[in-house]
Design goal:
The complex is a heterodimer of chains A (452) and B (86).
Chain A: E1 11-14, E2 33-34, E3 37-38, H1 39-46, E4 50-54, H2 55-70, E5 76-81, H3 88-96, E6 100-103, H4 106-114, E7 122-124, H5 131-139, E8 143-146, H6 149-162, E9 167-173, E10 187-188, H7 193-204, E11 208-213, H8 223-244, E12 250-252, H9 270-273, H10 277-289, E13 300-303, H11 307-310, E14 314-325, E15 331-335, E16 352-354, E17 363-368, E18 377-384, E19 392-395, H12 402-405, E20 416-419, E21 425-429, H13 434-438
Parallel strand pairs in A: 4-20, 5-6, 5-13, 6-7, 7-8, 8-9, 9-10, 9-11, 11-12, 12-13, 15-17
Antiparallel strand pairs in A: 2-3, 4-14, 14-15, 14-19, 16-19, 17-18, 20-21
Helix pairs in contact in A: 2-10, 5-6, 8-10
Chain B: E1 8-9, E2 14-17, E3 22-26, H1 28-38, H2 43-53, H3 58-74
Antiparallel strand pairs in B: 1-2, 2-3
Helix pairs in contact in B: 2-3
The chains are: A alpha/beta (452), B alpha+beta (86).
Bound molecules: pyridoxal-5'-phosphate.
Chain lengths: 452, 86
């Protein structure tokens, strides 16, 4: 007689009449494949854990966003936010789709050059550009977005020394009705700082003011805030025209559109809370179109969208290391990945699916990573079918910020593969090895022997 | 066997403890085990029953059974302080 499939025994208390603090069951089907490839095979071939990126999903998200804006406004340009994910393969997918590069450090700037992005299509943001980096950007005629007065002075000096006229914009921060207001970057709109900076640039006549930039925040769930930002920047562009007779070429609204992740503490699941890209495009395009520009004065609209274009294209595959029972009775499951590589688990309650078939019964659990550190919690509360050692899991919506903010801490970082548009699987970042970490270290002669 | 005597079980995996008013759900294997415990069977007998019919080995099941019984104690479904499978 063939034996029946085994599932370990579970018992779960029912809380009638109360919202279950653990939330409700969210997983109904196992996720056995990513873009046609078995999770099991991918892990077998590339080791566990493993990041998997879907080129198809990346391109689709880009095309949806591009369509949402271009059907509403005639001049739109996306610039890929490098810090969101600067694996070269990823950047080049977006560059092939027509994105420029948006960088916030000399390191990212050089990555964009390495990716063969023409200097004129690199936007250089950030509060801490060095003199050397600014010089590099001036030589390549990039768009330099000024963050503060000290930078404005250094840039003016450099322009004079180099006998060049750098193309610049200023970053503007403002009240868009969303709190907390981000005022640490750029020049304030309401208190007149932004106008002072513009005045200095135009009167100084060493820098070519070509645009205005803002980035009002990240994971912004309110599309109307972008309408306010677009209206305020448009207003400033009109003022510049009126005051100095100068037509600015673009308005850059930065990034910040939400992805389908669930923010910690949020009552709604991310899929229900996240506005569509059309819902963001509508107030932005309407505000610029209604600002009073003549048709040929309409500025180019630049968007530095990051996470909304890539989050859903990223998966983290991993393996169950062990199950244990906590003293208070809760189930704890230890996974082979933790906050070291899934940095975004500090912000989100990531959706996690088993990769093998399961029954209808679930239990409440806490998911821990493999680090011998108390902070290593992947999910504080989750309702999942019973998992056992060596089971595989799939974490969803991890394409943004993890493959840049991950830490080499306690253990090595895993490989990243991309499933191409033709379904082939390519390694786009190799699994780290002992040698790749050790090669940066140097040991003084007298410390070469432990003398134990 | 120290499972509380008045615990009510339904075939669909619903468990009711009239002394506290608490109710629970269990999966089919859990239900089967609670049934055996009610009949007064010990851990060894339960292991024989389950491993004969399900795809699990003895040591693997022992670990799960111990954990499950521990949960029954935490949920106060057992009588006294003794182990449910003594
Ligand atoms: C200046 C700037 N542009 C674009 C982005 C990308 O933001 P997001 O990934 O939220 O779209 C950021 C990220 O914080 C940023 O600081």
């Amino acid at each position: 007689m063939k034996k029946q499939a085994y599932e370990r025994p579970i018992i779960q208390k029912l809380n009638t009449g109360l919202m279950n603090k653990y939330g409700t069951k969210t997983e109904y089907e196992p996720v056995t494949h990513i873009d046609g490839h078995a999770v099991h095979d991918l892990l077998q071939a590339h080791g566990s854990p493993l990041f998997v990126l879907s080129e198809k999903t990346m391109r689709q998200a880009f095309r949806d966003a591009n369509r949402a804006f271009k059907t509403r406004y005639p001049k739109v340009q996306f610039a890929w936010s490098y810090k969101t994910n600067y694996l070269s393969a990823v950047c080049n997918v977006y560059h092939q789709e027509g994105s420029w590069a948006e960088v916030v450090s000399g390191f990212e700037y050089r990555k964009a050059l390495d990716n063969k992005v023409p200097g004129t299509k690199i936007i250089f943001n950030g509060p801490a550009k060095t003199g050397e980096e600014l010089e590099l950007a001036i030589r390549h005629d990039s768009l330099i977005h000024i963050d503060h007065f000290d930078e404005l002075y250094s840039l003016t000096q450099l322009a004079e020394n180099m006998n060049r006229r750098p193309r610049v914009a200023i970053r503007v921060n403002m009240d868009t009705g969303v709190y907390p207001m981000w005022d640490r970057f750029g020049f304030n709109y309401e208190d007149g700082q932004a106008r002072d900076a513009i005045h200095m640039i135009v009167q100084g006549d060493k820098l070519e003011l070509v645009g205005l930039h803002c980035h009002i925040g990240t994971f912004m769930l309110s599309p109307s805030a972008y309408g306010v930002a677009a209206a305020k920047l448009s207003q400033l562009v009109m003022e510049v025209k009126k005051t100095y007779g100068k037509t600015l070429q673009y308005i850059d609204l930065g990034g910040g559109f939400a992805s389908k992740n669930t923010l910690k503490g949020s009552y709604l699941q991310g899929v229900d809370a996240c506005p569509t890209i059309d819902q963001y495009a509508e107030p932005i395009c309407t505000a610029i179109l209604n600002a009073g520009f003549t048709e040929d004065e309409l500025p180019l609209l630049i968007l530095e969208t990051g996470r909304a274009l890539i989050d859903e294209a990223g998966y983290l595959l991993g393996t169950v290391v062990s199950n244990k029972r906590l003293a208070d009775g809760r189930r704890a499951t230890i996974l082979d990945f933790g906050v070291n590589i899934l940095f975004t688990s500090f912000w989100y309650d990531h959706r996690i699916s088993p990769a093998q078939p399961f029954g209808q019964y679930t239990e409440d659990a806490v998911l821990y990573g493999p680090l011998c550190m108390n902070i290593d919690v992947v999910r504080e509360h989750i309702t999942l079918p019973p998992l056992k050692k060596d089971d595989r899991v799939v974490v969803h919506t991890v394409g943004a910020y993890n493959m840049t903010q991950w830490m080499q801490f306690i253990t090595l970082r895993p490989a990243v593969v991309m499933v191409g548009k033709d379904q082939t699987v390519s390694v786009v970042r190799k699994r780290e090895t002992m040698a790749s970490i050790q090669q940066e270290e140097q040991v003084p002669e007298h410390l070469k022997h432990p003398d134990l | 066997m120290k499972l509380k005597k008045n615990i009510a079980l339904s075939d669909t995996g619903f468990v009711f403890d009239p002394s506290t008013g608490n109710s629970f759900t269990v999966n089919p294997i859990g239900l089967e085990i609670i049934g055996y415990l009610k009949e007064g069977r010990n851990a060894e007998e339960i292991k024989r029953e389950i491993t004969a019919r399900y795809e699990t080995d003895g040591p693997g099941f022992e670990k799960d059974l111990a954990d499950f019984v521990n949960m029954l104690q935490k949920l106060k479904l057992t009588d006294g302080n003794g182990k449910a499978t003594d």
